[in-house]
Amino acid sequence: MPQIPGPLTVISPHLDDAVFSCGCLIAAATDPIVVTVLAGIPDARLDVPDWDRAAGFDSVLHAVMHRRREDANSLAALGARPEWLDFLDGQYGKTYTPDQLLGGLARSAALHRGGTVAVPMGLFHSDHILVAAACLRMHAMAQAMHATHPVSTMDDSRGEPAPLPPLQWIFYEDAIYRRLPGLVQRRLCAWLQQGLVATPVTFALARHQPAKARAVESYESQLPLFNAEQLADIAAPERYWALAAADGRPG
Q1: pLDDT tens digits, 70-89
Q2: Given 104, 119, 241, 245, which residue has the most CB atoms within 10 angstroms?
Q3: Residue (of 156, 152, 140, 167) closest to 249 by Cα position
């Protein structure tokens, strides 16, 4: 089985996606950090959106602070640390471009450690698709840097600090969405049209499933909102992909 070159950094769209999609990988890894992109604290005066209201929250500030606590508890159970970026969850009405998210990710200390980076495929939900687009650009930048400056960091064209090229990049299938018909296949086809070929990457993670299950329980405000099939998918084996250029160069 392939090894997980440490340390591990997982990029998560929301405050739960990393554990739902990669909990076993996090439990198995060395010095894991989860960088949640859309974890910013919204203006307390905002109306409570439907999702937060369904989860039992009466204010957006209460919702995000409570979910951060859930995330911290879940990650601690897996031996991981959280890093929360200031971008807002899409339900709070703020929009971003992939380049804006890329700038925030490039400033993340976790992305300067090398090791392994796990990022979402972006199968469904506008927030996941947006974060995945930023991660794909970051992946391309890191691979280009590695080809020319394999041991040093550089600044990108906007003057932002760029991450140290990791030893290994992997793309994870977004839990609760990967079972929707055709979504994984569409993402693989889209990559192929971009000149990228995907190869499955398999890790020996089964023994970490009980730890993941316990960590998932920390997201008590979110779990009641999922149906039985979505909950079953969170408990299913995790799946990962590596990308390379169709001409054989790193992706």
Answers
A1: 999 999 999 999 999 999 99
A2: 119
A3: 140
